[in-house]
Amino acid sequence: xxxxxxxxxxxSIADAFQYISYYHPVDYIQALSAAYEREQNPxxxxxxxxxxxxxxxxxxxxxxxxxxxxxxxxxxxxGMHVKWDAKMSVTAMVNEGVRRAYLHPDNKxxxxxxxxxxxxxxxxxDNTPAVIHYEIVDGDGVEVICAAKGGGSEAKSKFAMxxxxxxxxxxxxxxxxxxxxGWCPPGILGIGIGGTPEKALLLAKESLMAPVDxxxxxxxxxSNRAEELRLELYEKVNALGIGAQGLGGLTTVLxxxxxxxxxxxxxxxxxxxxxxxxxxxxxxxxHGEGPAVLTPPSLDDWPxxxxxxxxxxxxxxxxxxxxxxxxxxPGDVLLLNGKLLTGRDAAHKRMTDMLNRGEKLPVDFNxxxxxxxxxxxxxxxx
Length: 382
Fold this sequence. Notes:
This protein has about 375 residues and is α/β, with parallel strands linked by helices.
């Protein structure tokens, strides 16, 4: 019988969320590197290169892969014979681990979780509470998956209650283009089929926690209907030509995951949850031997790419004209210099409300851009 100590469990959760904030899973990096080599669209290839370079920089400097450090998601499989040496509940311990991770002084992570979501929408300041899924299983250990899911990809989650005679593949191919590029491809599509509506969505989310292995499946061939669907959807979704960051190209998804569950004879529930280019999750086990040991990946797992800025168009933001802007095309690389204003949802709403009331804005926006970007917390004296 394993005994899990409170402090070991909390620290494991905290370490895991710090770890995934700056380390991509190696299987994702390898798949993205292969996609970079295959890509023929210059704009898409450039976008993939930027993701890979950014990823390596984050691994080296221990800074977040993405400014949106996500909502904390934890899957727990708790062995029936586990003993806890703890005064806190498991839920409270998970949330304490998340709190430590997101308030870490050497790599503070953006807190995006809001309480009272249909009312005051007040930031909890520490990204708690986490979304936790429990399963009680045989055994005397605890299996843990921690994931940080960004709001952009979560916003593109889809669900439908189809008729049993409807075509699942047609629904996916019709729905993916409606997601645009706001889910930040190239990523992974998780498909959940069957059960009830909430079960289908949980299956779709859980499927994203598995390794990227579509190329292995292509090599060995499918052994069941779920694997047949993975292969068919992988080929047909990529054939849509959405591509990296929506710029077109060969790779929209690096993998498609499918999990299914028995369902009512009258129903065919299907859910689709995308994972963005900031794919962040880690898997570990606890058996009472102390906190989880998370081994950093080798920097050799990243391709050694450099960014050639000489091909970019230099833009002086203090003097740029509308005529210059009209000459820009999707995929162009712009090298910006000058004053750039930033703002997000609350700022845009305030500006719209003031303009509708005929009030003067507190900032002069003539000849200026607003970069729609979320805040990032500084670390110490940075």
